Structure formats: C-alpha cells, structure tokens
Structure prediction request, 345 residues.
Amino acid sequence: MSKKVITFGEIMLRLATPDYLRFSQSNTFSATFGGGEANVAVSLANYGIPVDFVSRLPKNDIGLSCQMDLRKYDVGTGNIVWGGDRLGIYFLETGAVSRGSKVVYDRAHSAIAEIKSGMIDWDKVFEGAGWFHWTGITPAISQGAADVCLEAIKKANEKGITVSCDLNYRKNLWKYGKKAGEVMPELVAGTDVVLGNEEDAEMVLGIKPEGVDVTGGHVEAAAYESVSKQIMARFPRCKKVITTLRGSVNANHNSWAGVLWDGAKLYESPTYQITHIVDRVGGGDSFMGGLIYGLLTYTGNDQKALNFAVAASCLKHTIYGDYNQVTVDEVEKLMGGDASGRVAR
Prediction:
C-alpha cells in the first residue's frame, strides 16, 4: 500500500443554482461541499490511496456535516483542527454555450482564514505520510494560512516527503495586502512537482515563454518547455512541471489535454473533446488527483501518469459537484480508448 497522502487547504459549502438558472432566476440552491485540496483528497481516496485532508473547521453543525461528507468518501479527517465561527461559502451559477459560469465567494473570516502558525501539529500529521499537496489558493486566503502552508512545506522537506503544488492563481482572493508574487516563490521553492498553466506561471512567478510567439491562439509545445525550464532553473528542487491545456469552444464544449516536463523530455497527452460538460468546477483538481495517483502507481512511467490524469479529469467533466467520483477501472478504460459511454451490465 502507498504511504499516506496529506492535502491541506480550505473546504467550502457550495451553493449552486440548478438547471443552468441564473442567480436572479433561482429560488433554490443545491448544497454540496468542495475546495481544491479536498477535491484532490476525494479523488485519491476513490483510487484506493490512503489520504488525509487537513483544514480548520468551525465546531458547528455545518462544519460537522462537512466532516461527515469527507468521511463518506473514506478521506481521513482526524487531523482537522476545530475553531472559528464559520465555513466559507461559494455560490455557483453554471453557464451554458456562450454564457460562462460565475462564482461568487463568501469566505471572509472563515475558520481557516483565521488559522495561525502552531495550530497544526505537522509532526503528527506527517506520521506515515509520503506525499504532501497544497495549492496557491491557500496562501491567498490570509497571511495566517500562508504561514501555516509554509510551516507544512518546510516540515515535509525535513522529513523527505514529496511535495506537490497546483499554482491555481485566483486574482479575487489576494486581498490581505500581499501579491501572489511576494508570497508564492518561497512556497514553490520547497515543492517537487508543480502543476499550472501559462497564466499561473506568469501571474504567480512572473515567468513567460521565451523566444516563442503565443499570440496566434495556438500555443506550441516549445512554449511549455520554455516555461518549465525557467521554473526548474529558478526552483532547483522542482523535478516535474505539468501544464493543463484547456481549449474553450464554449461553456459546454472544451478540449482537454496536458504536457509534462521532467527536466529532459516533454511528454504530451492525447487531447479529448468534451462536448457536453456537466460540471467543469474541480476539473483541475481531478487532474491533480489523477496525476498524484499516476506518479505513485506507474513509477517511472511519466507518460502513463500524465495520460491517467488527463483521462480522469475528462471524466470529471461528466460528474456534478466538485468531487471526481470515478474509479481506476473507469479511468483506465477511457485511457485505453473506450469513450463509447455504453451501459455497463
């Protein structure tokens, strides 16, 4: 069995309008839970990887309901710390065709936004762990969350635990007086596996493709190689850089692929056409969950790990909610070329 994976970040109550309704049209919301690192944890648990999600939740009925929801998917919650007054909320209006989706955050003063250094015993959390995952969303929430994230990365580095990050730039979250470029580089410096896209690399790390024209809408593989090489040159600990490639035809039809640079070779995945998107929120998290599973399971086969991540994320677009609720067999079936969607019986 794999060593345990630890993910750390904020989980929120998700309130979504049903049936493509706009906020102004809907008098009901569908209530589920979701958040970048929790979504990764659920993916890994579904694939049979032991995983703990670490966060700070309010000790009230909503916080306890959230814990129960995670436990339903076999995600470990024993290292969650309790305190604060509220769980963050995000509202989702699902777009269609030419109308994009909208997210409205209501997460100020959430339990994790008020977390402080020393609240989490990282020595205890990392007992039996082999991998730690964080995202750029967590240090965007508050100075305290950024401090605790750095605490975790430093402790993981001390213990020889592999660290992965999804850069996940969210301009609407950096509100506490620091810019992403001031906070993120120190965190990325302790990270072994970095996931992002060209916007994340530019906005978070100030890194752009060199010597490549990207204005024509079709970004060449050379651009990703350039960005990846620059990340590795600046952050010597980094061993793999992965980029997700989403082409948006409209809100219901995206193309989806990925590339992985290991310092010597650029691996490219197949491209999927996702023509009838059910829910794209959590797509990047499902990619990360698939990637971690692939790197842990298909040791030494980066191509297969990348292909698993892309196929897993392709399937997530067919599933309502933040979580990717698919099995390894379902992902490997799609990897093998069976995209028929025929009834299994």
About this structure: The chain has eleven helices and 15 strands. The CA atoms of residues 218 and 305 lie 25 Å apart. The first strand starts at residue 4 and ends at 8. The radius of gyration is 19 Å.
